[in-house]
Amino acid sequence: MSRYFTEENSAETVISRLESCPDPRFRQVMESAVRHLHAFVKEVEPSIEEWRQAIDFLTATGQMCDDRRQEWILLSDTLGVSMLLETINHRARDGRTEATVLGPFHVAGVGVEEMGFDICRDGKGEPCVVSGRVADAGGRPIEGAVLDVWQTNGDGRYDVQQPDEQPENNMRGKFVTGADGRYWFRTTKPVSYPVPTDGPVGRMLDATGRHARRPAHIHFIVTAEGFEPVVTHIFVRGDPWIDSDAVFGVKESLIVPFELEEDAGRAREAGVHAPFWTAEFDFALVETSTG
Ligand code: BEZ
Ligand code: FE
Fold first, then answer.
1. For ligand 1, is residue 195 a contact (CB within 6 Å)?
2. Whose CA is nearest to atom 3 of ligand 1?
3. For site-directed labelling of 136, which of 6, 62, 168, 216 has its Cα 20 to 30 A away?
């Protein structure tokens, strides 16, 4: 191999400079990054102008970020990298509920509500009752499981996207299961909505002919002492965007039928007006692995 950098030896020449890297994992990461980057450039052979455009795009992505907006995560989401990472790190195990992306709109520290509470605090959208059970892999109910729930309002926007228009914690709540592992809460039927498109990721989606929509869903983080947490959504069966989620988050096992209930008696029992939507979903958690 030539002592000096050539087109042929480019990756190996850079990698040879990593020999003194003291952290073996970091060295592996850097070696792989260099190898794949050089292979990418050799395959695409960008012009200098194209490379400048790429740098401008990455610069704009960073400049779009602040403490309320994370454009890098949105880029990772829309390129399928977040879902790949999620899937590798939470491989479906022993029948546990499948995971999907956290997304940028989770808010920590939301209060615990009484079972049956209505998380819709702005009166928009179509009423819906969501219920089910949290159990272990053997089907035994888990007492004290915490369900942290959030979704958009009837207009398809999260409260944190419209702090001046929506009440604080609109469409958010936490619920704690009793001995039967059951949960239920009132909300509105989720609607599909676009991921933020006013930044470089929006321009990338546009330039590649992609839409920005996510199929209607409700987010959950389910935790219980001694069990691995599950970060997931339930999706509305029949949503027109179910096969083309902009962030690739849909899994078959998370698609749930939302049924329209017309019975006035059932509506009264649930504290809503008929007609209202119902959805049922059971969560399965696995015990935290020891060792
Ligand atoms: C969300 O579902 O809230 C979401 C996930 C990924 C990117 C943008 C939004
Ligand atoms: Fe969402």
1. yes
2. 103
3. 216
Boundaries of domain holding 256: 80-285
User: Given the DSSP bridges, would you call strands 259-261 and 182-188 parallel, antiparallel or unpaired?
Assistant: unpaired
The answer, as to whether pTM is greater than 0.90, is yes
Whether residue 189 has its Cβ less than 6 Å from ligand 1 = no
Beta strand residue intervals within 75-223, DSSP E: 127-136, 146-150, 172-176, 182-188, 193-194, 213-214, 217-223
**Residues 51, 114 share a domain:** no
Residue whose CA is at the smallest distance from ligand 1 atom 5: 103
* pLDDT one-digit tens code per residue, 250-284: 999 999 999 999 999 999 999 999 999 999 999 99
What are 167-218's pLDDT values in tens digits? 999 999 999 999 999 999 999 999 999 999 999 999 999 999 999 999 999 9
Pairwise CA distance, residues 110 & 56, whole Å: 38
Q: Give the C-alpha separation, 250 to 241, whole Å.
A: 10
Tell me the residue type at 211: H
Say how far residue 57 (Cα) sits from the centre of its chain.
24
Alpha carbon 276 to chain centroid distance?
26
Number of domains the chain is built from: 2
**Cα dihedral across residues 176, 182, 188, 191: positive or negative:** positive
88 shares a domain with 30 = no
